[in-house]
């Protein structure tokens, strides 16, 4: 029990330092001159990080928390590498949106599985709730 | 002849203003004498630019120099409380110097991080992670900032 409690508190510290790192990134965001305004992108980074972190703040399973930490780190590294804070739009598997209206459960699961690990928070059932 | 003198002097003044505003960030600099508004008739028309340069330089100097009045404990308290009041998630009625962020003001740890970011922006230096988790009340923040300012040999009364 104490081991899991210790791991939870160290995870907590890692999560908070990740959040801090993201906010520091937003402060000095260079943007892409002529293409993207740094202020808008910085505002996006702050709001997106805020919603996604708060959405998962009541998670307790350390494995799930670890996967979300990995997701945050991937997003940070991708944003730094490409200088684009927005997630890359994923490709949908073929035949997903063939039937009109709400996608059936099987196709919805297929669409979820098509999302990469660093977009885990965008899967259906994880809709960001803004309080 | 006068026109050429004026444009040349204005360019150098602008370059000087830019240089000084950068240098003033890192160290205490003296504004060169010929950048001050002089009584010389030729440069009197450029007093607008030099005034602006002086204002900008003195603004930076005010926060960066040891003799400024901006860093006494009262001033620090004032600035910290202003920053905290501007934070939307805190209701100004419950806020006192000794109110605990998490227990009394109902902030969660993410809000706490954002609040400390706002304070870092205000005072211009970074607070490391180990120190950040101990700052749970406005009084802790004020004490911490005073100590940090003392380390940098600023006045804290």
Short characterization:
Chain A contains four helices and no strands. Chain A is mostly helical and 131 residues long.
**Would you identify the regions of chain A where 5 or more consecutive residues have pLDDT less than 50?**
127-131
At the first level of CATH, the class of the domain at 73-153 in chain B is Mainly Alpha
The residue-averaged pLDDT of chain A reads: 84
What is the count of distinct domains of chain A? 1
CATH homologous superfamily caption of the domain at 73-153 in chain B = ACP-like
What is the number of helical segments of chain B per DSSP (H or I, 4+ residues)? 7
**Gyration radius from CA atoms of chain A, angstroms:** 17 Å
Quick one: overall form of chain B? globular
Estimate the strand proportion of chain B: under 5%
Organism (chain A): Macrostomum lignano
Family (chain A): Belongs to the complex I LYR family.
InterPro entries (chain A): Complex1_LYR_dom, Complex1_LYR_LYRM1, LYRM1
Domain Complex 1 LYR protein (chain A): 13-75
Task: Please provide a written account of the structure.
The complex is a heterodimer of chains A (131) and B (157). Chain A has 131 residues and is mostly helical. Chain A contains 4 helices and no strands. Chain A has helices at residues 2-27, 38-55, 62-82, 105-114. In chain A, helix 1 (2-27) packs antiparallel against helix 2 (38-55) and helix 1 (2-27) packs parallel to helix 3 (62-82). The longest helix of chain A has 26 residues, at 2-27. Residues 127-131 of chain A have low confidence and may be disordered. Chain B has 157 residues and is mostly helical. Chain B has a domain at 73-153: Non-ribosomal Peptide Synthetase Peptidyl Carrier Protein, Chain A (Orthogonal Bundle), CATH 1.10.1200.10. Chain B has 7 helices and no strands. Chain B is globular and about 35 Å long. Chain B starts with a helix and ends in a 6-residue tail after the last helix. The relative contact order of chain B is 0.10. The model of chain B is unreliable at 21-47 and 57-69 (pLDDT under 50).
């Amino acid at each position: 029990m104490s081991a899991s409690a210790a791991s939870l508190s160290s995870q907590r510290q890692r999560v908070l330092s990740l959040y801090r790192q993201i906010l520091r990134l937003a402060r000095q965001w260079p943007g892409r001159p002529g293409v993207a305004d740094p202020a808008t992108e910085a505002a996006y980074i702050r709001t997106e990080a805020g919603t996604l972190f708060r959405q998962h703040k009541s998670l307790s399973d350390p494995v799930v928390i670890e996967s979300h930490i990995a997701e945050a780190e991937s997003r940070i590294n991708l944003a730094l590498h490409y200088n684009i804070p927005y997630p890359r739009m994923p490709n949908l598997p073929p035949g997903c949106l063939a039937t009109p209206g709400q996608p059936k459960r099987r196709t919805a699961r297929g669409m979820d599985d098509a999302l990469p690990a660093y977009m885990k928070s965008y899967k259906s059932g994880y809709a960001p709730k803004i309080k | 002849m006068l026109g050429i003198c004026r444009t040349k002097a204005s360019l150098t003044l602008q370059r000087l203003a830019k240089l000084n505003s950068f240098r003033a960030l890192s160290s205490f600099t003296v504004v060169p004498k010929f950048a001050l508004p002089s009584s010389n008739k030729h440069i009197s028309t450029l007093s607008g630019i030099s005034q602006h340069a002086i204002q900008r330089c003195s603004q930076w100097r005010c926060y960066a120099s040891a003799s400024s009045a901006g860093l006494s404990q009262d001033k620090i308290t004032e600035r910290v409380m202003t920053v905290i009041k501007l934070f939307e998630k805190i209701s100004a009625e419950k806020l006192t110097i000794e109110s605990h962020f998490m227990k009394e003001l109902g902030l969660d740890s993410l809000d706490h991080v954002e609040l400390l970011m706002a304070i870092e922006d205000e005072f211009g230096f970074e607070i490391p992670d180990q120190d950040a988790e101990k700052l749970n009340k406005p009084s802790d923040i004020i004490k911490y900032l005073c100590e940090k300012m003392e380390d940098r040999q600023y006045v804290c009364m």
